[in-house]
Amino acid sequence: MPKRRLNKFKVVSLIVLLPIALLLLYQVYLFLMVCWYSVQNPTASAVMRQTIEELRDHDPAATITHKWVDYADISNNLKRAVIASEDSNFLNHEGIEWEAIRRALAYNRSQAEKGSALRRGGSTITQQVAKNLFLSNSRSYWRKGQELVLSYMIETVMSKERILEIYLNIAQWGTSTFGAEAAARHYFRVGANQLTPRQAANLAAMLPNPVYYDTHRNTRYLNSRTNTIQQRMRLVQIP
Length: 239
What we know:
The chain has 239 residues and is mainly alpha-helical. It has helices spanning 3-37, 46-56, 76-86, 98-114, 125-134, 141-157, 160-170, 180-188, 197-206, 210-215, 220-233, and strands at residues 65-66, 177-178. The N and C termini lie far apart (62 Å).
């Protein structure tokens, strides 16, 4: 092969292979972070950092409210309510519910055709941990693809109890409120270990749109959803 053609081949190979190598290195980094968080409590999440940046665009002194509490210090009522609301098959799946994703896509498509803004998510609790902890609230095919990869990593490394513990501690429950402890005190003036079944169901009902329900706490839909979740809680097993 002539030298000029050989050099051109090397340049093309470098252009093609370098992004792949960088992507693989990034996946290794993420896997190591998943391993780290399997034994170490995160002090913040990607969504927390994103939220602070957005809030500080309007108020440079803005902060968020967040306090980590261990799994044993979170009411079982809230654990049951969140599983009942967000991921009823949490204990059985391996991180992703493909059928739930398909149903959500079909529902969202039908709502868009009607001109409705209502949307339904098909994400499992594991996927939400992946998004909240490592990624962001942005919507893109890249973010969704990375979320799926991370979900398998998380399920491989972490127990269901650990996944739920992290989720309950980093979930957004208001404009600047994150985690079960901050949410319990923000809405009900009690600790996360003191939540009643009704209070827990109400917090779980807020999860799909926490910023909106922070200032709209008594809507007909929220009350109806709270009742439904409370009825389902008795059937839920927790890790």
